[in-house]
Structure formats: C-alpha cells, structure tokens
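Example pasted here:
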Amino acid sequence: MKYRKVGKSGLKISEISLGSWLTYGGTVEDETAKKCIAEAIENGINFIDSAEIYAKGGAERVIADFLKDETVNRKDLVISSKLFWPMSEDINDWGLGRKNVMNAIEGTLERLNTDYVDIYYCHRYDYLTPLKETVQVMDDLIRSGKVHYWGTSVWTAAQLERAVAIAKEFHTHKPTVEQPLYNMFVRHIEMEIMPVAKTHGIGFTVWSPLAQGLLTGKYNEGIPEGSRASKSEFLKKNLTDENIAKIKKLVEITKSLDISMSQLALAWILRRSEISCAIIGATKPEHVTENVKASDVVLSKDILLQIDQVLDNEPEWPLTYKPNLYTDKMR
C-alpha cells in the first residue's frame, strides 16, 4: 500500500481507503463488515470513512464495535465522519449551523466511542446558514481537539474559494479536504473544483470510484433481478449499451496488464496527484483484497491514452448534478 498526503497538510492516508456508505450498519451484516475492516487494515488501509447519516448512525456504531478489539490501535487509524443531513424531525437537527454542528459531533463521538475524529466533513453546502458561522464553528472543533481537520463534500469551486477566503480573513482553520464523486464516467471536478482545491492545498478523497460497481464489469450482462444493485437508480440509469461497450473495451486493456477491471478504474483515478485516496465500498473481505492491489498499479502514458480513447468523455457538468439541499441525495 502506498500513502499520500491530504492536500498540503501533514496527514497521510492510504491511496485506497474504506468507506461505509450503503453497507455497514445496513445491508451488510455486522460481523461481515468487521471482517472487511480487518482485511482493510491487514492490507495497509489506514483511512476509514463514515457519516452520521449512514444507516442513521449504524455505520459509526459498527466501526466502534470493531475498534473494541484490543489488537487495533485507534491512533494508527484515520477515521472520518460527516454532518448535514437530517437525523430526526427536529428543526435544528440538520445543516451546518452552530447548534447542529455542536450536537452532531457529540453524537458521532459517542457512536464511534472515540475522543476525536481525524476528519470532519460538511456533507453538503448549507445555503441557509452563513458560511462564516460554519467556518468558525469548525475551527472551534479543531481547537477543542474533537476534530483534527475539517473538510467538505460535494462543494463547488466557488464555495471552496469563499470558505478559504473567510478562513483567511478571520484567521481560522481552512478546509483541508474535499470529498467529491469522481470516476471514469463522472469527471466534472477536473474542470474547476480540482484546480481551485489544488491552489489552496486542499486534497481529495473521492467516493464511488467504481460507479457503484459498474466499473468492476460485473454488470456487463445486466443486473440480477432482486439483488441489492437492482434497487440502485444510478445503476439503472447508467447501465446503458454505450457504457457497457466502453467497459468491455477497457476489460481488453486489463487483460494486457494482467489486472482486474476494478484495479484499472482505481489506478486511473490515482493517476492524478491531486487525489489523496479513492474510497472503496466492500461487502466481502475479498473485495478489499482485490482492490487494494490498485495502489501498486502504475498506468503508462500509452495505456492512459488508450483509456481516454475508449472513454471519449471530456469532463463536463452532469445534467443530474444539482448542488441543492432540496434535490441532492443523502450521500
């Protein structure tokens, strides 16, 4: 496993990291989830990503249960969580206002059974709270020791610019990391977000690097009826003849390199130095075992050119991208 710095900070995380969205505390049994985490750590993964909204706190509890193992040293791990989405019907139990941030971090620390989180993400941009209030309360959490670094998730370039400007004006900690959607089929961050983040020393921990399994090639013949994947609107929408044809051509490239399709997709993401890590999901330990090998894959310029020719998709804003708290999904 190789490691990268998160932006220009001193924090180092594994190039392949483990996430808990759509899996732990929900569709994956707890014991299986803990085996996946154990396999991840055994293979050099040191970053585990979560959020309070994942299984309504269930994912955080599974991680905490795993950490009870006396052979696991908390200080060796980088653990993150996020806040924004409603956790109850209470009017103040959502968003990035001071009251919710202060309540949310206490809930997360209690569920994780830890004194601090290494990274705390603002899980979306809050259009109803002054950004200055959010920046200052995140700074307060860092100064209190409950949070080591704060970050953003699915923020625009303009929002990142403004957050950094406020942090400079009021001498507070600026965001260290952004967590966007990024994979071979969704490349919009290359246009503005990536250059802006790089300018300000902000790293990237990207989610859905395998497009919810689409880029593993396992759905090339369709989605099994009744499977968990059959309920995914993303897969139903993106499982097109055009995309499948591209994946089949990419599989031919993997054969020449003697690697799997998922390893190719992850290595393609890691080609960018701006990326700190790709966050994988895993429902079985063997998924972790296979995907961590992508850290050792270096794609040549010739292979990258072949991939670009197959993808034939210049970065653009997807029509479904609406950074709006009323229409966005709870990811």
